[in-house]
Amino acid sequence: MSTASTRLPEGRYGRSSDERADRKLRIAAAVLGAVVLALIGYFAYHYVAKSEISAQVVSFQTSDASVQIHLEVHKDADARGYCTVRSQSADGAEVGRADFRFDEHAKQVDKVVTLRTTSRGTTGELLGCHAG
Q1: What is the block-wise mean pLDDT of the chain (132 residues), using blocks of 10 residues?
Q2: Where are the alpha helices (DSSP H) in the chain?
Q3: What pLDDT score does 23 carry?
Q4: Short-list 70, 54, 69, CA closest to 116
Q5: Residue 46 and residue 38: Cα distance in Å, rounded?
Q6: Closest to 103 measured CA to CA, from 69, 128, 73
Q7: Which helix (H) or strand (E) holds 86?
Q8: In terms of Cα–Cα distance, which of 88, 61, 57, 60 is closest to 72?
């Protein structure tokens, strides 16, 4: 006695529904992967190529109610941004903090900023600069 085969002959009736579903899943996965790679590339480019602003404190002078801080800012000529400075007293307490904007169209900006303090400051520190 012979047993009847339940499989259809190869290539006679086209692809099975499982093969069609597998193909659709592969296409969807490829499209989704391409979109994810494009998003990663976009965010990586903007993280690396964003306008950078760097600065340093050249000097500072303290008085009873303020600190004058001479900042040297390096940036792209068309970049705008701000730098945050602070002063601390002799015991380490923060006596003043402020943001100063830099909108000049130059690659280097030398500026003396006056930071008001609540008591005599002994430092003039740059906390950081940000584009924006």
Answers
A1: 64 68 88 94 76 87 94 87 93 94 89 93 92 80
A2: 17-49
A3: 84
A4: 69
A5: 12
A6: 73
A7: strand 81-88
A8: 57
**67 within 8 A of 124, measured Cβ to Cβ:** yes
Q: Are 82 and 102 spatial neighbours (Cβ–Cβ below 8 Å)?
A: yes
Q: Side chain identity at 111, as an amino acid letter?
A: K
Cα distances (Å, whole numbers) of residue 111 to 12, 61, 63, 73 = 82, 14, 18, 8
How far from 61 is each of 16, 69, 115, 123, 132, CA to CA, in Å?
82, 7, 10, 8, 28
For residue 70, how many other CB atoms are within 10 A of its CB?
A: 15
Q: What number of residues does the chain have?
A: 132
Residues whose CB falls within 8 Å of the CB of residue 103, separated by 6 or more in sequence, listed in order: 80
How far apart CA 69 and CA 63 sit, in angstroms, is 12
Structure tokens at 67: 């600190």
Rounded distance between C-alpha atoms, residue 86 and residue 120, angstroms: 12
